[in-house]
From TrEMBL, chain A:
Source organism: Megasphaera paucivorans
GO CC terms in record: ATP-binding cassette (ABC) transporter complex, substrate-binding subunit-containing
Official protein name in the record: Multiple sugar transport system ATP-binding protein
A GO molecular-function annotation: ABC-type transporter activity
ABC transporter domain mapped to chain residues: 4-234
Keywords for the protein's UniProt record, in alphabetical order: ATP-binding, Cell membrane, Membrane, Nucleotide-binding, Sugar transport, Translocase, Transport
Presence of keyword Isomerase: no
One of the Pfam families matching this protein, by short name: ABC_tran
Alphabetical list of PROSITE patterns matching this protein: ABC_TRANSPORTER_1, ABC_TRANSPORTER_2
Domain of life the protein comes from: Bacteria
UniProtKB/TrEMBL annotation, chain B:
One annotated Gene Ontology cellular component of this protein: plasma membrane
TM region(s), chain numbering: 12-34, 69-98, 105-127, 139-158, 179-202, 239-260
Membrane topology: Multi-pass membrane protein
GO biological process, one term: transmembrane transport
One family name in Pfam for this protein: BPD_transp_1
Keyword Transmembrane helix set for record: yes
Protein name: sn-glycerol 3-phosphate transport system permease protein
Amino acid sequence: MHNIIFDNVSKSYGNKEVIKQLNFEIQEGERVVFLGPSGCGKSTTLRLVAGFEDITDGKLFMGGTCVNNMAPGKRNIAMVFQSYALFPHMDVWENIIFGLKIQKLGKKEIEKRAKDALEMLHLDGFEQRLVKSLSGGQKQRVALCRAIVKQSPYFLLDEPLSNLDAQLRQQARQNLVRIHEINKSTMIYVTHDQVEAMTVGQRIAVLRDGTLQQIATPREIYDNPSNAFVASFIGSPAMNLITADIVDGHLFIGKVAVPLPDRITAVLTGKHSVIVGIRPENIHITTDDRAMLKGSCRYTENTGNLQTTQLYLADGTAIFSQFAGETYEIKAGENVGIQFLWENVLFFDRETEINLYVREKGENKYGNYRN
Amino acid sequence: MKINIKKELICHIFLIAAVIISLWPVVFMLSASFKELNQIFQSPLNPLPSSPTLENYMTVLGRFPIFDFIWNTFFIAFFVTFFKLTTSLLAGFAFVYYRFKGKELLFNSMLMTFFIPVTVLIMPNYLLISHVGLLNTPYGVMLTELADGMGIFLMRQAMRSIPKALLESAVLEGAGPIYLLRSVVFPLVRPSVIAIGIMFFINSWNEYFWPLLILKDKSQYTLSLALQMFISAEGGSEWGIAMAVAVLTSLPPLILYLFFQKFILNTFMQAGVKG
């Protein structure tokens, strides 16, 4: 078993606690992404797993063994660093076989592994090149090569794609997933990029200020964020979060009363004020007079396939809407009706920001609204 | 940027004067070594010998065991450099890569050694060498010079410029401290090692006072000690010969410096120390 278990893991620098009681398990062969804004503790958590930082409190288990006091070199980990950490005084080949030489593997085995890895990442012919003569994308692939030749059961990646341009990034992402499908190592991937998180991760752990906010599949995180922070962090444009009051089974959004369906009223019993969360793609613009809300279009962006619109309600609340561009051409200044489906709406507690209404699987339906 | 010509001019005049003052002894040494004895005193300010002669050099090479002196000096300078470099590398490495109690205190106390005047150390060091019976041997000269605070400081500065991720990645691959030092750290700080090594070598090569105390036999003399033989001679100083020895003494460090100038400057800039 090559799983990783965080058992109440905390990390402090002096009096400052930067990681607060992490409790979760990463299954063998799973791809988990640590996602969060800078300074949330995701890289520190990764460094705890690698052994570069000491755990202040709690226990970290890897493959059933507590590794709190185990040296990094003994943990059998392969890692790709953000800066790639290639040795500038060695050529590509020497960089790749660096760890294998320390492991004292046979010459034939070393050559076979290195050649296979080079071929897999289309680096054949680069063996004798010095690191400094490589482009960013090539360096990234060499770093990946060096990690995979180790054939470690654990694979850590610290923002490995952040130094690449957008096009290379997508390619590199695919490479990573492809390699993981072959190696099936237990993988932790740290990023602040939500697109990377959604595409690479089988599960995403969202961190904020050193605490775990939610760990779930990308779909689950998107559909059922555990709190308003997770909801706003995932998705672009971000989810609309609007404070609203509840009076007599009605939701007051921007001074307009919208009747709540009974099943939602039942869940929200006792709440007088909530944060309403609706994803931009679930806000529909209509010319129908019977629309739930009325607003005016502030500005609109058309990217060909998508039209993103910022709308203002009568009281000045801003709402983003995003829909397929061809359905309806909207102009700035135009007054429109705003419509949404209740099953696409989330409710968060006003104080704790916790999700109050966790939807069942399949309850939300995207893009099924017809004007 | 506007250049103040007047200010620049004054600065340059000062600098040129400083260069002339510091270069004059060198020029004097060089020209005197090619002059006959009487001409040295006839026109000491004229740098050009009226009838250049190699006589002084021939005398030095013929009459004195100059190669023995060179060998003695080299022997001491080489081993002093070797040991100082080894200790600086190891100590610098420990100061950068290990976390241990009292590290800062230890490092600061090591820096404090810079401020202890050499003259204060001479007495205890001399007694030590005398007790262990190494007086009048090159080992007595070397023994007190096996480590150097400045070397440790400069090595530490050089190693601190290596990105942390490089070392972490090597550690993750299972590299132990010695392997890490040998195959990652050392190759990356090699320019600094060369520069610091040359500095050690030149210092040891030029050292006068300490060898003077330890070495008694002429057969053990280093070049700088040999030099005094020509100056303090009872029958009047043989300046031409002395200057020829001085030229021969200064050549090796000068050549070393010229070859590795780039490394030396870089190392001191990196450490923020102005030479």
